[in-house]
Amino acid sequence: MAGLALEKNRLELQPDGTTVARGTGEVEVLDVGMVLPAIGFAAKRIDGVPYDEKARIIANEDGRVVDPASRAVAANEYVVGWARTGPQGLIGSHKPASAHVVEHMIADGAGLDARALPERDAILSLLRGRGVQIVSFDDWKRLEDVEVARGTRRGAPRDKITDVGAMLALLARH
Question: What share of residues in the chain are helix, strand, coil (percent, to 5)?
Fold first, then answer.
């Protein structure tokens, strides 16, 4: 008999703020003739950033970037989100997990002298000089309004624009 067994999961909050699904033992079998898996995620490699080949994430220990072979911590390098954990947890579960990594940053930075940052306008000028299109908070709000309107048309909270080029093109038109 061909089929697909689905197990109901229970979400469990982890100490670092992430959420993990655990099977409940409640199983339903669907009578299907073919299954095409279409899920998954792999962090993209970034030159010079340690990468965990097996997990396909930025190599890390609890958010601190590490050398994948020796597991030695890379000073002042951190990772959050799916690049840290792989595709697990809900969208909102990464906020407390990111706050947990910030706690590491604060603890690791104890005793370090604060660096003076350039003025905001100097940073914006530098980026514009390099041809970077700046996206302001107001621009983000405009994108959000478009996504919510698109979602409303199909009965959803929003219809996310996932292509960065499309987002930037939309901003350029408005």
Answer: 35, 20, 45
